[in-house]
Predict the 3D structure of the following.
Amino acid sequence: MEKFGHFPKRQVIQGAAPIGPKRAFDAQHSMASRRINSRTTSFDVAALAGVSQSAVSRAFTPGSSIAAQTREKVIEAARKLNYVPNSIASSLTTKRTNIVALILGNLANPFYVLALHEFSRKLQACGRQVLIFTVEPGAESDEAIMRALQYQIDGVILTSAQLSTRMTAICHERGIPIVLFNRYIPASDASGVRCDNVAGGRLIAEAFLSAGARTFTMITGDARGTTSQDRVRGFVERLIEEGIKRTDIEEVAGGSTYDGAVLATRKLFAVHRRRADALFGVNDIMAMGAMDVLRFELGLRIPEDLMVAGFDDIPDGARESYKLTTVRQPVDRMVEETLAILHLDDPHHPIERGIDRPIKGELIWRGTIPQPSSARKPAKRQLGQ
Amino acid sequence: MEKFGHFPKRQVIQGAAPIGPKRAFDAQHSMASRRINSRTTSFDVAALAGVSQSAVSRAFTPGSSIAAQTREKVIEAARKLNYVPNSIASSLTTKRTNIVALILGNLANPFYVLALHEFSRKLQACGRQVLIFTVEPGAESDEAIMRALQYQIDGVILTSAQLSTRMTAICHERGIPIVLFNRYIPASDASGVRCDNVAGGRLIAEAFLSAGARTFTMITGDARGTTSQDRVRGFVERLIEEGIKRTDIEEVAGGSTYDGAVLATRKLFAVHRRRADALFGVNDIMAMGAMDVLRFELGLRIPEDLMVAGFDDIPDGARESYKLTTVRQPVDRMVEETLAILHLDDPHHPIERGIDRPIKGELIWRGTIPQPSSARKPAKRQLGQ
DNA sequence: TCTCTGCGTGAATACGCATGCAAATAATTG
DNA sequence: CAATTATTTGCATGCGTATTCACGCAGAGA
């Protein structure tokens, strides 16, 4: 891809009326405004409103020192010219772009779509923009972060992608906060917000146990991330406490995807002819992949023949086809915490390093585990309308 | 939200070695680089490499006039300082941000996630960034577009949101191309790329007819958009051609969402006790909502008791739980065409107005319509790995 | 050896806006 | 009414980079 291009010079119109040195500026700009693609600038507005460019700037800067009447004049002139302030230019002086980079590693998992939506909503609500970077699942995020830095973003949010120590350092060195979403890196300088995955794993174990399960299978996710590991850990921990033998818990890697879980389930049950009472998909999308294989390829009934649980509580899992019992990750609060750690409102706030903020999830009973008597109504969640 | 903040002035260090006026610039910048949050600039790199700032700029501009040896020196110095060019500053002079605004109206429909992913991938591949705006479904996109304009984006892509004539005009006036994705507005200045929805609707009708259906129901989407209308039109058109009576085709609005389709289906079949051979969900997500009601609330078998078809071919519909027969929208080509109309590579290309580019979809046979003998293997599509 | 190209280079400047500073005006007080 | 104080305003400048212009210099041709 060629980066260079031909950018036309401003044409100097010769026949213009003679003007004094003081008006040179205005003239230059009003000439320019005839050109196609020329933006109208604060000078144009200033000229029309009969004030200085500073006044225009102030009119659009909340809290700055300007008379209400002047502001109105300016706003009116701006309206006439369809003027909008150039955020790019403004960023150059303020050193704030109001842009946050969101690095997405796995859009195939609806959980991250949920997160994206929530981030976008909340950031838009406070006048920021979201710059998206998609990274192939499991790939390094280094390149994406470097690109983000070029755009002088105010902060970086990283979901499901690897983060190198070097990148963390580079961001911090520049005063750019970076927060991991739904993961954390132990003993790292990078901060992160996540669900309390260990506790969540325990909730699932608890649910299975309460329904009488004694032998278990797990489909695990990305082995490099703590997220999957922690869920597994909490799950196993709780089972062991209850006297389950480790040999009665089998795990297979499902790569965090639906398709990966399909393969894993086939291997587990069709090839190895594994018998188990319960299957824990370390996230919902994998649990759903497993369910489809169990039901449609192996002819098993859920939960009668085998119980299933997931983790995340994505909207898809709530549908009648799955009615997946799961642990709800409180996306809303997680997003809130993530933004809080970014301190977008206060550029001078020292960067929060090494924070690990686990947030409790909640067990959502639906149809894939027989429910004890002390039951509540099944919960549901929606995205959008 | 306060926009203003206190930005510390650069501290002038007094005890610095005496320097000539020529080096004042360099000194200022190298002093600055000690400050927290200070970016290293092209001047810093220039100083270290022993060249002028122009040379640094040229080193990072492909195709510019610079000796290979000089470029290397500069790149080396930049590497040492972790320097990356400031795209914001560069945009100020080039008038190109390499940012494209993507306005999303309905992330709850995986089709748009698919599109987002593809846009992101393709744009990143050619060195552009994607600035995301989410708009509540059905809401005006005006505000989002105005925000995008502030950021001097190079183009706007609009999915599933209303576009006012005024906004189209404002964008065009500024030389910003705007393209509708998956919709078009008749007799409008705005260009758009979409699937050939009429033809797609006909494909579905054809499939139903080939399986022997004679009475039909439809769950329709957004009545304001042409997308749903066209699919319905093609569908009905083909049925009428085959001698189906209009009274044997009923339609209910499903609001383009899963939940809306659930309600619509209940109304249609549970309340009105409608009988029909086939149900056409105007998009996959609605067809899936309908299927879940038909199967789990009404106990109907698909396709034995009732055939179903969707439109889009989202990955979710391909799963064993649904195996939805549908029309595949060629996202890949649609995205390509959309970007082509944007002409990002050539800022001087006149804006393409009023283009309507329909792209043929393809019928994907899966399990929800009994398949005639001339069958192919069911197709599958994936997002991500 | 001396012009004629043409490439490489540095100095200077513009891009559009925010802000420190000082001047000017308005509001307040004694 | 004069003396302050508070509020507005304009001027000038800087933010970091791309690009124009003019100049230096090496190799080509005469």
Q: What stands out?
A: Residues 10, 39, 41-43, 53-54, 56-58, 60-61, 64, 85-94 of chain A lie near DNA strand C (CB under 10 Å from a C1'). Chain A touches chain B through 89 residues (CB under 8 Å). The first helix of chain A runs from residue 24 to 32.
